[in-house]
Specification:
single chain; three-stranded antiparallel sheet; alpha+beta; 98 residues
Length: 98
């Protein structure tokens, strides 16, 4: 019983990881650049799916799609997907039950 549940959990985790990997890096880069101070910037390369701090320090860093400032990224550019939370009803008798 546990091995079947474990296998299902592993498959679900792998599917989720493959689906959100590029989105996660893009959104993280956006967040880091929006919250960065005026002396620091973060740039994202869609081709290699990497976010680099102060990319201007790396003169010959290749990115065929071009480096884009994190603060200029949009949710559409990061291909973020809206995910609805599951329905949940609580009551006092369900307190401390997990």
């Amino acid at each position: 019983m546990f091995s079947n549940l474990r296998a299902q959990a592993i498959v679900a985790a792998l599917m989720l990881a493959s689906e959100v990997s590029s989105t996660q890096t893009c959104l993280s880069c956006r967040r880091q650049d929006v919250n960065a101070g005026f002396l620091v910037s973060y740039s994202y390369c869609k081709q290699t799916d990497e976010c680099i701090q102060d990319v201007w320090n790396y003169i010959n860093r290749p990115c065929e799609s071009g480096w884009e400032r994190g603060k200029d990224l949009t949710l559409e550019a990061c291909e973020a997907k809206a995910v609805a939370c599951i329905d949940f009803e609580s009551s006092p008798d369900k307190a401390t039950q997990y």
